[in-house]
Amino acid sequence: MTKHSAFVYTVANQKGGVGKTTTAVNLAAFIAARKARVLVIDADPQANATSSLGVRQDGQGVSLYDTLVNKVPLADIIQPTARPRLSLAPAAPELAAAEVELVQVLARENLLRKALLPVLDDFDFVFIDTPPSLGLLTVNALTASNQGVIIPVQCEYLALEGLSQLMHTINLVQESLNNDLRVAGVVLTMYDGRTNLAADVVREVQSYFPEQVFKSIIPRNVRLSEAPSYGEDILAYAPSSPGSKAYLALTEELLSRVRKQLAAVQGEAQS
Predict the structure, then answer these.
(1) What's the helix, strand, coil split of the chain in %, to 5?
(2) String of b and e for 46-68 (b: at least 16 CB within 10 Å)?
(3) 7-270 in CATH: which number?
(4) At what angle do helices 20-32 and 242-270 cross, to 10 degrees?
(5) In what order do the strands lie in the sheet with 38-42?
(6) Which of 88, 137, 198, 229 could cysteine-pair with 155, CB 3.0–4.6 Å?
(7) Average pLDDT along the chain
(8) pTM, rounded to two decimals
């Protein structure tokens, strides 16, 4: 990765309802608010990131489906959002058909990475939101990442269920498609401090991912749930809410990791 290329993260967990879209959209929003150029790629046919950013797909506009299946350049589907410097490559329901339509395509796991290459220098950060599955769309997202996977894990019973399957997929992609793939971080979401269970889950996840868990924990917060229905990120919708403060802290933590990473790379180059 050149120093000008974007940092590309995939937000993934094949379990639904764990806060993938909320995490992708709000990390993107807070980083864009820092004057960085950010792109959200919505790779989920449910298009929740698309609607969360205030873009309504009426079936007329182009989407990621057109890029993956019809070879429309990614630059031609990217749209601005209400937040300055935050752009979106929208999803649409027909994206669900892409998995079937691309079965015969050679190197189909690399389609998103190839599509992303021409626009990498236009952005500082890219966040790819994925569907709750480990199919071709998620594999494309993992293959396209140069900074790894951010895994949201909800602080609820059976939180770690299925994560071994996700880790297996990550390892397979790393071995065969993307040698740089790693777990960039684990985000604990939907935390309810009133329950003993939540504290138990935090300890369990921290023992499973001792190095990768972010210290910033996202609470269960009604404002976070409401914001997408207004097509707004939490910074725009309820900037002083506990959810907003938690994502601000998570953003600080992620950027701190990025700065340490860049410093380490520069140190190696000088030695």
Answers:
(1) 50, 15, 40
(2) bbbbbbbbbbebeeeebbbbbbb
(3) 3.40.50.300
(4) 70
(5) 79-80, 86-89, 38-42, 125-129, 7-11, 148-154, 183-189
(6) 198
(7) 93
(8) 0.95
User: CA angle, corner 219, sides to 248 and 86, nearest 5?
Assistant: 35
Question: Does residue 59 have a pLDDT over 80?
Answer: no
**Ordered alpha helix ranges (H), 161-241:** 163-176, 196-208, 222-226, 234-237
d(CA 243, CA 238): 8
**Which residue's structure tokens are 């890029």?**
67
Q: In this predicted model, what pLDDT tens digit does every residue of 177-228 receive, in sequence order?
A: 999 999 999 999 999 989 889 999 999 999 999 999 999 999 999 999 999 9
User: Which tens digits make up the pLDDT trace of 130-155?
Assistant: 999 999 999 999 999 999 999 999 99
Per-residue model confidence (pLDDT) at position 1: 40
In sign, the C-alpha dihedral spanning 248, 8, 33, 90 is negative
Q: Is the separation of the CB atoms in 149 and 182 below 8 Å?
A: yes
